[in-house]
């Protein structure tokens, strides 16, 4: 009997990971991996598969329906019932304490003590949100009021974006933004999807053929079934039903909102999605739970005390009878809620708005920082969130992209090797090197762009003299072998390339005299040193990530057939003719270029006989129209012609590091921040950039994938051996992977990463699967097997993270966006550290969203990373200021703020606790009601807010000069359990002093007038005055950076207290509101007694003098790093100049190989070959609108 084989993912131990390839696609499934296999499957499976292919496909994911030019169709009830609900927790939930205060049996406080602070907090928060909403509404209104043309009543009419609906047919002109989420293309176009590099989009051939006129577009009645809106921007599944035929739709036929139309005068599209909103979740904070627990325990203890006091004293004291015959237990229950109200200021509602104000202010300081402003592109730094500022001061790990983040992503042709000779050094026409030489004058070339800088005059001499034909053929290859599109703007050539590398190569050939001028479906025109020649294009063998090369086959005007090819050295060298005299010289040049961190590729060619081409072309045409496995068939045909190639040389393109990258990485490393580079580039390129930015040094020991795999295998074996019966009795031993000392780095490719982390997918066995019910034992064994596999995988991943974190630098290359996010998630999971991810492109979005903090670089790669980030700026070097200055200051300010806030509120609130021992635990307050109302709102709020906004222990220059100051945030030294309980203890001791010193002073005393001042109201005024002076002077002791504003706020708060107190204790306000103001004359009567002033001074002194003494001893005997720097800050004002480490060239070492300079995406070959890509001369748009019968003239641009 046959049983079903397990079809779960397995791990192939036999295959060796390939460092040269990017792992499988993020969305590739096991079934898709199956299709790639070549194993022979059973006959029964083949028959079943054919039956499935012949069956009408049922697409469960195609649940979204769109009908063209029919708005009424989308107003039907089953469409209108589809709604998206967004539930959000309200900030403005009114505390239930206010309602408890309305119950006389519970509350001893007036209702306004909670209502007034609550209204103030809600008012400030509402104003802040209103400002944000108004700004957001203004931006939305500006975008929504943009216009485009929509077909209405059979003609195109101008409409606003907000009025566009699903099913509308719209017209987009050149340089227009796409206004809706996803329109389907009806005419072909090239677009710029918020990226520098163009992406081609090709419409269905049927719509391109029949929907050229306005009346045809108005009559279009196609019906689309597709997937619902989702976050998979690179995939799309749908079907267009039109003219009784179904046409498949994919991502190449869809435009996303925000794309820019290029390379066409206009195009038309059908709106599929509109008004789809994606929301970002906010993090929750549960830090209040512990304080609330303390509040409940205190209230419960005091309530029990009141119940006991009532049973022992209250019931037997006739003068305390209140007319209610409540039991002691019931009175204790009421007092529990009474103390919850009285002691609720331990968690004051003003804390929320204070934190919001501080965070908002810190975010604006980041936005206003001129030292993070990039004037070249008018790009300031932008804090896109206000909730993560203090976490910027606690970063342990930074995950960075390479291209466009560490580098400029602006490619420049720097050097080349032709026929074994290296060109590009500073030398004159006689091959003499010079340190200072003028750049080459390209005025002889009418097509030179005037921006290209080159200093090797000897290469120009070789081109113009023609002594070496290989030199001219080299640049002719660059001018002809590409998929660049050309456009003329004001008579100047404008190249549109699929990658910046390819654009740089074609532009270099243009400046050296071989200018690409125009192309049609079958021809390409080149200016060769001023002579225009047109070549017939017989075939374009396009680039893909597997081939790593592209070729073009052309027929010269003389009738010869030639193949020109460019690609990675690893694939080109495998296909060279064995008789290549310059092979070794070119290899040496590649090593030199790689050591200079240049991006390289090899150029080669071959001549093809007419008969050979005719035979190959038949195979090529057959593969081009194959209905299944077309790509595999084409690759196989390409291999037949791309062999026995003649090597011409190699190019070297420079992708410069951004300014200040080595300095930034050096300072962040000194701040004990680990930097991991995650990139899709080749290992050699990533390693070279690591050396260039000084992430790696010459004394760094580098571990590669095979080394890591061996170390992890040994560790797993040791752990397995220790995991016997007695493992639970033996404490786990965390042994280091490397001996102490030495500088180590880890470089790992995506393939090795999958192998090591047990994420590698393998193909399933192609066997007949007959499903039978499993027994209970089989299910149990299967479950145990899965658990063991998951446990092994988790242990392996933890070991990898431990190993990587022992290295000073980690570089992960040839990794997919999904793998980038996975690496970040592993560090978050196993290290419990704050992480930051920084990138500039769409492929960095997953990584940016996975990290605790995401930073977007607004550079050459567009705005996707910026829109997904928490902070953004234009240059990587600004990261050091964001973390070492703003992040560190924000952390210190917030920690100081929280410590002081809890201190002042415990000192204020716990006076009620001590007072309860003398009032029968009756929840009577120790202060006047109005003082309780205004304490956190007016008397002590402004100084702490200003400290949270402006305080700094050292200046920004010293913060950058001494990165070691940053470690206090990483170790969370300024606000942890220890610091919190110290603040709590400080508040408790202060509250005891504030209560017991006035209490002792008031016992058995007589004033100057012979009267006893020891009444309750005078006692409350004395405690309140001492409290306000103490907490305001205390914040003066905590302030490190004094300004006039700080001093004014401290003394102003004290003056404000006394001014309001005298007003509230006046007879005039008592006459107006007798029930609300009952302390009539108390302040004037009490504070005219010198005895009370002495009591206040004594109380304040006892509270503050021990603090002053402890601070002095601490700074003298155990000074912190910031204390030392503050002490010598005048001597340290001159900022230390950072010196770049000298580069050491390791001649003869070829471990750092050359890097393939293409982008990892296909070019425009399909579009060019289709014939619909070339800019067609159309009738003027006005003529088309006016005359529905206007025809397009389909002639190629010259």
CATH superfamily of the domain at 349-369 and 884-1120: Calcium-transporting ATPase, transmembrane domain
What's the N-to-C terminus distance? 71 Å
Largest sheet: 10 strands, mixed
* Secondary-structure content class: alpha+beta
Helical fraction equals 40-55%
The first-level CATH class of the domain at 349-369 and 884-1120 is given as Mainly Alpha
Q: Name the poorly predicted regions.
A: 1-14, 25-60, 81-95, 192-196, 276-287, 762-770, 1143-1160, 1175-1198
- Average residue-wise pLDDT: 77
Tally of strands: 33
What value does the Rg take, in angstroms? 38 Å
Subcellular location: Apical cell membrane; Cell membrane; Cell projection, Stereocilium; Endoplasmic reticulum
Region (Disordered): 1-59
EC number: 7.6.2.1
GO molecular function, one term: magnesium ion binding
């Amino acid at each position: 009997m046959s049983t079903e084989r397990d079809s779960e993912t397995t791990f192939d131990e036999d295959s060796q990971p390939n460092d040269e390839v990017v792992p499988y696609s993020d969305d590739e499934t096991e079934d898709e991996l199956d299709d790639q296999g070549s194993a022979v499957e059973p006959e029964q499976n083949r028959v079943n598969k054919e039956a499935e292919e012949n069956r009408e496909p049922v697409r469960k994911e195609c649940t979204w329906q769109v009908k063209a030019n029919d708005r009424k169709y989308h107003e039907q009830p089953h469409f209108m019932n589809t709604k998206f609900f967004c539930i959000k927790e309200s900030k403005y939930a009114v505390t239930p304490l206010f309602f408890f205060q309305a119950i006389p049996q519970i509350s001893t406080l007036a209702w306004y003590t909670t209502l007034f602070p609550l209204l103030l907090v809600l008012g400030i928060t509402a104003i802040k949100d209103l400002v944000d909403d108004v700004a957001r509404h203004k931006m939305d209104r500006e975008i929504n009021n943009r216009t485009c043309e929509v077909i209405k009543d059979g003609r195109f009419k101008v409409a606003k974006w907000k009025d566009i609906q699903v099913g509308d047919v719209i017209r987009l002109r050149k340089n227009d933004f796409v206004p809706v989420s996803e329109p389907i293309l009806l005419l072909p176009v090239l677009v710029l999807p918020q990226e520098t590099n163009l992406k081609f989009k090709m419409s269905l051939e049927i719509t391109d053929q029949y929907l050229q006129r306005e009346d045809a577009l108005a009559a279009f009645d196609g019906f689309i079934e597709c997937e619902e809106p989702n976050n998979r921007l690179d995939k799309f599944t749908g079907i267009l039903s039109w003219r009784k035929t179904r046409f498949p739709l994919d991502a190449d036929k869809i435009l996303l909102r925000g794309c820019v139309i290029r390379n066409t005068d206009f195009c038309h599209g059908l709106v599929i999605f509109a008004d789809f909103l994606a929301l970002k979740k906010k993090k929750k904070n549960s830090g209040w739970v512990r304080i609330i627990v303390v509040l409940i325990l205190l209230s419960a203890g005091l309530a029990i005390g009141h119940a006991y006091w009532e049973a022992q004293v209250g019931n037997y004291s006739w003068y305390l009878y209140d007319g209610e015959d409540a039991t002691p237990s019931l009175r204790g229950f009421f007092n529990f809620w009474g103390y919850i109200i009285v002691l609720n200021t331990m968690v004051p509602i003003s804390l929320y708005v204070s934190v919001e104000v501080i965070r908002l202010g810190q975010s604006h300081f980041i936005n206003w920082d001129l030292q993070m402003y990039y004037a070249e592109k008018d790009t300031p730094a932008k804090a896109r969130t206000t909730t993560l500022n203090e976490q910027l001061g606690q970063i342990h790990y930074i995950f960075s992209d390479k291209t466009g983040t560490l580098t400029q992503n602006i490619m420049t042709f720097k050097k080349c090797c032709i026929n074994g000779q290296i060109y590009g050094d500073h030398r004159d026409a006689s091959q003499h090197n010079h340190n200072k030489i003028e750049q080459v004058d390209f005025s002889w070339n009418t097509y030179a762009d005037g921006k290209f800088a080159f200093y090797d005059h000897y290469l120009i001499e070789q081109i113009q003299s023609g002594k070496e034909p290989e030199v001219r053929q080299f640049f002719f290859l660059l001018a002809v072998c590409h998929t660049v599109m050309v456009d003329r703007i004001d008579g100047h050539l404008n190249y549109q390339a699929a990658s910046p590398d390819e654009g740089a190569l074609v532009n270099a050939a243009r400046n050296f005299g071989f200018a690409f001028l125009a192309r049609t479906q079958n021809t390409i025109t080149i200016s060769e040193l001023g002579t225009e020649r047109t070549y017939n294009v017989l075939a374009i063998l396009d680039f893909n990530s597997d081939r790593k090369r592209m070729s073009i086959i052309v027929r010269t005007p003389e009738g010869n057939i030639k193949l020109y090819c460019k690609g990675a050295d690893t694939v080109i060298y495998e296909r060279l003719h064995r008789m290549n005299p310059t092979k070794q010289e070119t290899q040496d040049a590649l090593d030199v270029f790689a050591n200079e961190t240049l991006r390289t590729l090899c150029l080669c060619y071959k001549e093809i006989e007419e008969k050979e081409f005719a035979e190959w072309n038949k195979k090529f045409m057959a593969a081009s129209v194959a209905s299944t496995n077309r790509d595999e068939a084409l690759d196989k045909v390409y291999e037949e012609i791309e062999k026995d190639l003649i090597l011409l040389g190699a190019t070297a393109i420079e992708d410069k590091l951004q300014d200040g990258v080595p300095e930034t990485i050096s300072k962040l490393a000194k701040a004990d921040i680990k930097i991991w580079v995650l990139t899709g580039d080749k290992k050699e390129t990533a390693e070279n950039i690591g050396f260039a930015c000084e992430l790696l040094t010459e004394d760094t020991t580098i571990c590669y994938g095979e080394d890591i795999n061996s170390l992890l295998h040994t560790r797993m074996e040791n752990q397995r051996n220790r995991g016997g019966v007695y493992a639970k009795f033996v404490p786990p031993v965390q042994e280091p992977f490397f001996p102490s000392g030495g500088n180590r780095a880890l470089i790992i490719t995506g393939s090795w990463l999958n192998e090591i982390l047990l994420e590698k997918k393998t193909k399933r066995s192609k066997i007949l699967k007959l499903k039978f019910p499993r027994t209970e034992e089989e299910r149990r064994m299967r479950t145990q097997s899965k658990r063991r596999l998951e446990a092994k995988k988790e242990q392996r991943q933890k070991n990898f993270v431990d190993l990587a974190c022992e290295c000073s630098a980690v570089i992960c290359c040839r990794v997919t966006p999904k793998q980038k996010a996975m690496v970040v998630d592993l560090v978050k999971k196993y290290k419990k550290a704050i992480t930051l991810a920084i990138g500039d492109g769409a492929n960095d979005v997953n990584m940016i969203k996975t990290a605790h903090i995401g930073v977007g670089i607004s550079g050459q790669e567009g705005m996707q990373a910026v829109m997904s980030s928490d902070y953004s700026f234009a240059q990587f070097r600004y990261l050091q200021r964001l973390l070492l200055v703003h992040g560190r200051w924000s952390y210190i300010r917030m920690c100081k703020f929280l410590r002081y806030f809890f201190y002042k509120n415990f000192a204020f609130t716990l006076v009620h606790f001590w007072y309860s021992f003398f009032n029968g635990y009756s929840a009577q307050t120790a202060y006047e009601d109005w003082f309780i109302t205004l304490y956190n709102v007016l008397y002590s709020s402004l100084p702490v807010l200003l400290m949270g906004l402006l305080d700094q222990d050292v200046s920004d220059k010293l913060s950058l000069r001494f990165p070691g100051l940053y470690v206090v945030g990483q170790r969370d030294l300024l606000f942890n359990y220890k610091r919190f309980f110290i603040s709590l203890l400080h508040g408790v001791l202060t509250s005891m002093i504030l209560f017991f010193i006035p209490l002792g002073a008031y016992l058995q005393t007589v004033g100057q007038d012979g009267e006893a001042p020891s009444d309750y109201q005078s006692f409350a005024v004395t405690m309140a005055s001492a409290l306000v002076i103490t907490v305001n002077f205390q914040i003066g002791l905590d302030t490190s950076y004094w300004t006039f504003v700080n001093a004014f706020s401290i003394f102003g708060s004290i003056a404000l207290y006394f001014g309001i107190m005298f007003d509230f204790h006046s007879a005039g306000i008592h006459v107006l509101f007798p029930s609300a103001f009952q302390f009539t004359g108390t302040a004037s009567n009490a504070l005219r007694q010198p005895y009370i002033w002495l009591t206040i001074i004594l109380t304040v002194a006892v509270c503050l003098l021990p603090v002053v003494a402890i601070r002095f001893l601490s700074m003298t005997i155990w000074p912190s790093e910031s204390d030392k720097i503050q002490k010598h800050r005048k001597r340290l004002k001159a900022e230390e100049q950072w010196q770049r480490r000298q580069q050491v060239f390791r001649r003869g070492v070829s471990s750092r190989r050359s890097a393939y300079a293409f982008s990892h995406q296909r070019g425009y070959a399909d579009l060019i070959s289709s014939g619909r890509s070339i800019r067609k001369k159309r009738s003027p748009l006005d003529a088309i609108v006016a005359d529905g019968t206007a025809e397009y003239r389909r002639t190629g641009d010259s």
